[in-house]
Amino acid sequence: MNTWLDHGDRRYTDRVRLLVEILPALAQEPRFALKGGTAINLFEHDLPRLSVDIDLAWLPVHDYAEDARLIAEALGRLADVLRARPLQLQVQLSAGEGAGVTRLVTSRGRARVQIETTPVMRGTVHPARDPASFSRTATHAAIKLAS
């Protein structure tokens, strides 16, 4: 059976594989939910096109300084998980302007995936959803989706 992985750029395919390996680890921080292009294309439309980065929404909303601190701490814990077995990824932490850590750049070999959030855009309009309830693609990813 031919799939979207059988065609196209090998670097793109490697990045998508890495992204799919990373997603289950992100569920270890339940205050994050997947949002943006990856959430839409991976779970809502079952992979017609996939951006190869991960955007996270911080679900609780407190004051800005407290949330920025908590986001940085949560990303630090995720970096530790991604560096450990079984993934053993290289992970660089990156800070946004005037904020703590807001981005992780993960890599294995030539494949690289960014994981980003922002302390400015927090919370959701609608409750976060479990993708396993509506997506064939989500059988292994326990992270919630923000819409």
Automatic annotation (TrEMBL):
A Pfam family matched in the record: AbiEii
Name of the molecule in the record: Nucleotidyl transferase AbiEii toxin, Type IV TA system
